[in-house]
TrEMBL record:
Residue ranges of every copy of the PilZ domain listed in the record: 14-101, 117-195
MF (Gene Ontology): cyclic-di-GMP binding
Name the UniProt record assigns to this protein: PilZ domain-containing protein
Pfam family, one: PilZ
Lineage, top ranks: Bacteria, Pseudomonadati, Pseudomonadota, Alphaproteobacteria, Hyphomicrobiales
Length: 203
């Protein structure tokens, strides 16, 4: 199921040490002057990525990005492309291994028609109504569609910004995806199954 490694010229071997996967992930990124912009990744490897971006910095600029399904990555702009730029990724060997596994799963997901990541079994709480505290301290009522030890799907009229930090009950989380009728959260720390429901519905 893995994508075929592209043929490259010798001069490109260093840039292509890692296999690039074509995919479409949304996210946000920040340039050194702290301006933030939305973006769309068009290909990625554990060593770098290319993205469509409205705000383009200079080659060598440091970039911090938050990407759906991937999370936080950082690196430097390597070259400018049409309507965006390519960047290298600064990551430990352990982080690169994790990225490789994530990219393999994302590349194969559509081919295999896999559902969303199911690292943990999803359950529907007995009391699905919860209070969400946003990063500005304001609160809103929401309904938990389903949840697991690692995250939850939320139905609500208001959708917090992607990657914003929130509290679901007393569980810290961040927004990883927008849904048609709400959003998905990933918990900052994996929860214990026996205390999960009490923690997310705490007021």
């Amino acid at each position: 199921m893995l994508l075929q490694r592209p043929t490259v010229q010798p001069g490109s071997l260093e840039r292509r040490r890692f296999q690039r996967v074509k995919l479409h992930l949304l996210g946000r990124y920040m340039l050194p002057d702290r301006r933030e912009f939305p973006c769309q990744v068009i290909n990625m490897s554990p060593g770098g990525l290319a993205l469509l971006a409205p705000g383009i910095g200079n080659v060598g600029d440091r970039v911090i990005a938050y990407l759906d399904h991937i999370g936080r990555v950082e690196g430097k702009i390597a070259r400018i492309i049409d309507n965006g730029f390519a960047m290298t990724l600064a990551a430990t060997p352990r982080k690169r291994d994790k990225l490789a596994a994530q990219l393999t799963w994302l590349a194969n997901r559509d081919i295999l028609n896999l559902p969303e990541d199911r690292r943990h079994d999803r359950i529907v709480p007995r009391n699905p109504i919860a209070v969400l505290t946003l990063d500005d301290g304001s609160q809103m009522s929401c309904r938990i569609i389903d949840m697991s030890r690692s995250g939850a799907a939320i139905a609500a009229e208001q959708r917090p910004a992607m990657n914003s930090q929130v509290l679901l009950g007393r569980v810290a989380a961040h927004v990883v995806r927008h849904l048609d009728d709400g959003f998905a959260l990933e918990f900052t720390h994996e929860q214990l199954e026996e205390t999960l429901e009490d923690n997310v519905t705490a007021r």
